[in-house]
Amino acid sequence: MGYSAWFQCVNGCPGHYSLYDVIYACPHCGGLLEVRHDMEALRDRSPAAWMQLFDARARTTQWPYGSGVWGKKEWVIPDIADENIVSTFEGHTNLFWAERLGKRIDLPDLWIKMSGNSHTGSFKDLGMTVLVSVVKQMRAMGKPIMAVAAASTGDTSASLAAYAAAAGIPSVVLLPRGKVSTAQLIQPIANGAIVLALDTDFDGCMDIVKELTKDQTIYLANSMNSLRIEGQKTVGIEIVQQFNWSVPDWIVIPVGNLGNVSALGNGLLMMKELGLISKLPRLVAAQSANANPFYLSYKRGFQEKISIQAQPTMASAIQIGNPVSYPKAVKTLQAFDGIVEQATEEELAHASATADRTGLYTCPHTGVALAVLFKLRRRGIIHRDDRVVVISTAHGLKFTDFKLHYHENQIPGMEATLANPPIYLPPDANMIRDTILRTLEQRGNL
Ligand SMILES: *Cc1c(COP(=O)(O)O)cnc(C)c1O
Ligand SMILES: [Zn+2]
User: Fold this and answer.
1) Distance in angstroms (rounded) separating the CA atoms of residues 81 and 397
2) Pocket of ligand 1 from Cβ distances under 6 Å
């Protein structure tokens, strides 16, 4: 088969590095590395043959191809040994046709990519399966890696801990104390990671983990390690595949450290280069207004990277002020005629609650993406007959406090207009029937 992939500097410095080397940055300029594939070799199959192969593998039990990531192994890490792959058969998450939500904004062709319906409840699993598999292979090759480590806003650590535990590799996670949800804190604890809760924010944890992983025996699992991007890029390919290999008009994605939007773009560009698609969607990167460095950079035409001190946001997984993958994301936005837009706390909470009323159960980050979609639809930038996919990045069940505070109308500075608190009653059937009727009437359902 002869497919191959390697690390290379994003800024174009010379030098190829093995994916099984412990290296995260370009030795010449210090820039990020990206995974490059031998595209000529991949042309040995026609576009139709690739589509057929990927369709045939979808959801099979044949190891490791039943995974949404490893079903595209030749495009991800072609030469890794199957026995070193660590997978939960992640990917193949459903597209939810948001019919009722779409009606509210006069957008009939609205779909939600349910990336949070995954092993640890977020899209981070797509990247972590690749990173932990490569570590397993490196250890099998005799590389002295004693543990994997990551700074996290909660979902990376949950995913790392689970995959590391599945592989029997020790893991270390650095969390900003008090800034992740209860579910996100308990996940790596349950999976046996060494959990370090630090008195700093995510950006502070990131600085520390970079320091720790200068020692080659602790392997860095953050998304500046582009192995994760290789797994995450399958989400874009999968969306197109789910629409019978047709490309939607827009993809809206909530962004923080900017790894996932770059990954999404990479997958789509690879499909275009290999002739599986002939057009690209436009991308929308959605930020919380309280943590909006990418939005600020965009507003200044990406003249320079802007870093800020991120303020608290309910969208805690994207509370990031100094996004590591900024240069990659700028390239992506430019290639996809992209837009960056932001949402306030009130807007994200309202959008999330609105979506939930139509049967979804959205995390606050998905709330950010939806709030941004509502704005762009209102402004007429997104048109009625456009096909739009919103990437839901995590499962709402990880964010119970967010939901609880909203429905108790306890979010400071805003009125929770869709709050739906429980009604406390004695067990009296007549009184209960009256209450049900009165409530249906109040809601205009009678
Ligand atoms: C990590 C994460 C994001 C942001 O992804 P980046 O790659 O950091 O931009 C968005 N939503 C959720 C739920 C996440 O866990
Ligand atoms: Zn370089």
Assistant:
1) 35
2) 122, 124, 155, 223, 254-260, 317-318, 363, 365, 393-394
